[in-house]
């Protein structure tokens, strides 16, 4: 059966319905239905038409679709789990969606702008983001280890903000929330609806608001504006006073304080190593596939000349005093059922740690088991004896993996590393589908 949702295309409520339907495997179409609205008791959208009657309200429609589909668990697997999901939906709808709308909608010309209201809205948003940050420090999702209706509705509430309000400086205050958000929007049901889930670079301001009012941007329902139509039209802005001329710069530049020198990375302060990581990367890249093991793998342990090196460079070999090797296993393999989605997940992780390229080399292997899942297994070479602290502090993905240090006295572990670097057809007895390399 195909359910019809009457909602403004691109609105938040439409997104809630469409994403939930894709997770639940329910067929829905979104469009206007004036006739249906005229016969509905509340005569308002969003509205869902079912054989039993009409249902009104974005969260209510999403809840119905989650329960109507063949995939169960989106609304809970027990009384407590269901209550936890509903608790998050109620909290975020009342305490986050409302202030976000008060912050965002005036900037896109839907509501009139008021600086005091904007400041109050930003403070309220920060308060709830603090709650989310503390909670998601130890949790992968809002209610368990998989996406539930709580995550779907929360992402739909936050999507316009992550796209147009939350710049990098703001996101750095909420790394756990951002990690969770990116984990969600990387999944196929979200991608199918949002299309572009890129993060904000420059926040919009009141100067960007269209004159004379404008429809809400995708993901935000224009009909959410309270009050009558007159209240929704932005007031004409007063002519701005001519700005005063900026004072002339000081003639003596030496009077201005010099910027403090950039502090060195703790990894640069480690004792010197006989191993040059960039040389290893060149050995890996230049080794021919016809004798990769004889050249690259043997060279990793014993050292060797780098093929086709213009200056006849020699790699000294792995230094266990200056470097360490680590394994990582993705914690939630049961999520990984779509090949390209898993590849995107790994690719996004590697993009977000570009700042450690100087100190790290890694191979991330995407495998396939007999359940149709795609486990992710990785092997990493890090400068020093620990995982770089900056990765643990700033990369949202790190806690999605179990990390453990390799024991190089164990020949089986050395052989596993060699197989992963060589991209063998089987890793850990599983089919090796794809390998992504960080170098």
From TrEMBL:
Which residue intervals are annotated with compositional bias (Low complexity) in the record? 211-229
Q: Where is the EF-1-gamma C-terminal domain?
A: 263-439
Under the heading Pfam families, the entry gives: EF1G (PF00647), GST_C (PF00043)
User: Which residues does the UniProt record annotate as the domain GST C-terminal?
Assistant: 78-204
Composition-biased stretches (Basic and acidic residues): 230-247
What CDD domains does the record point to?
GST_C_EF1Bgamma_like
The protein's name is: Elongation factor 1-gamma
What organism does this protein naturally occur in?
Apatococcus lobatus
């Amino acid at each position: 059966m195909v359910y019809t949702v009457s909602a403004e295309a691109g609105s938040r409520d439409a997104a809630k319905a469409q994403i939930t339907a894709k997770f639940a495997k329910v067929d829905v179409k979104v469009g206007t239905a004036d006739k249906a609205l005229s016969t509905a008791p509340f005569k308002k959208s969003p509205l869902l038409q079912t054989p039993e009657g009409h249902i009104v309200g974005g969260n209510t429609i999403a809840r119905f679709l989650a329960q109507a589909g063949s995939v169960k668990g989106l609304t809970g697997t027990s009384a407590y789990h269901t209550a936890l999901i509903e608790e998050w939906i109620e909290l975020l709808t009342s305490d986050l969606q409302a202030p976000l709308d008060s912050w965002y909608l005036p900037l896109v010309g839907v509501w009139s702008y008021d600086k005091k209201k904007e400041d109050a809205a930003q403070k309220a948003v920060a308060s709830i983001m603090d709650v989310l940050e503390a909670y998601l420090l130890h949790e992968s999702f809002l209610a368990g280890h998989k996406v539930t209706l709580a995550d779907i509705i929360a992402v739909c509430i936050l999507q316009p903000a992550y796209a147009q309000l939350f710049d990098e400086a703001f996101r750095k205050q909420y790394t756990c929330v951002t990690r969770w958000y990116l984990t969600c929007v990387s999944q196929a049901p979200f991608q199918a609806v949002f299309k572009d889930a890129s993060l904000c670079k420059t926040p919009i301001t009141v100067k960007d608001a269209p004159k004379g009012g404008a429809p809400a941007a995708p993901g935000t329902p224009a009909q959410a504006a309270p009050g009558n139509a007159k209240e929704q039209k932005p007031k004409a802005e007063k002519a701005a006073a001519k700005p005063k001329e900026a004072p002339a710069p000081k003639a003596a530049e030496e009077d201005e304080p010099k910027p403090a020198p950039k502090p060195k990375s703790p990894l640069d302060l480690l004792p010197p190593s006989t191993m040059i990581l960039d040389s290893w990367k060149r050995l890996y890249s230049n080794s021919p596939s016809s004798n990769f093991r004889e050249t690259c793998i043997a060279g990793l342990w014993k050292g060797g000349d780098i093929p086709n090196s213009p200056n006849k460079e020699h790699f000294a070999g792995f230094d266990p005093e200056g470097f360490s090797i680590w394994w990582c296993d993705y914690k939630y393999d049961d999520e990984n059922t779509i090949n390209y989605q898993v590849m995107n997940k790994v690719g996004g992780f590697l993009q977000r740690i570009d700042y450690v390229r100087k100190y790290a080399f890694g191979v991330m292997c995407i495998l396939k088991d007999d359940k149709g899942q795609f486990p992710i297994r990785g092997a990493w070479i890090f400068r020093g004896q620990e995982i770089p602290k900056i990765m643990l502090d700033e990369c949202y993905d790190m806690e999605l993996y179990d990390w453990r240090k390799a024991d190089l006295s164990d020949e089986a572990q050395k052989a596993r590393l060699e197989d992963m670097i060589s991209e063998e057809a089987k890793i850990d007895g599983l089919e090796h589908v794809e390998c992504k390399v960080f170098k």
